[in-house]
Amino acid sequence: MNLMKIYKISYEIFGELYSKWAQGLTIPNSLFICPKNNKYLAIDNEYNNFFIEEFNTKKQAICWLIRNDFSKREIAELKTVKIDKLLSKIDYKIVDYQKEFYEL
What we know:
This protein is α/β, with parallel strands linked by helices. Helices cover 38% and strands 26% of the residues. It is globular. It starts with a strand and ends with a helix.
């Protein structure tokens, strides 16, 4: 099983990435998580589509990013115990974006 990386970004970097993507510029084809006002933005840019969803918890956001078989609505309705079980089946790591990518 391959390790899935999810890059933790600030809201400022989220804005920069979104702006570059909207202009058609190249940004990393990756998964991102961004805290915002006690919620979490989950950004899926694996195929250059920049899908964005907002979740109440970090675990919900991570689950949506790595479990393609669940919709945002389905994940939002799951109990924490079920989310923990789903996440335990995937090998993933949260990586600080700034340490991995030195230039946007």
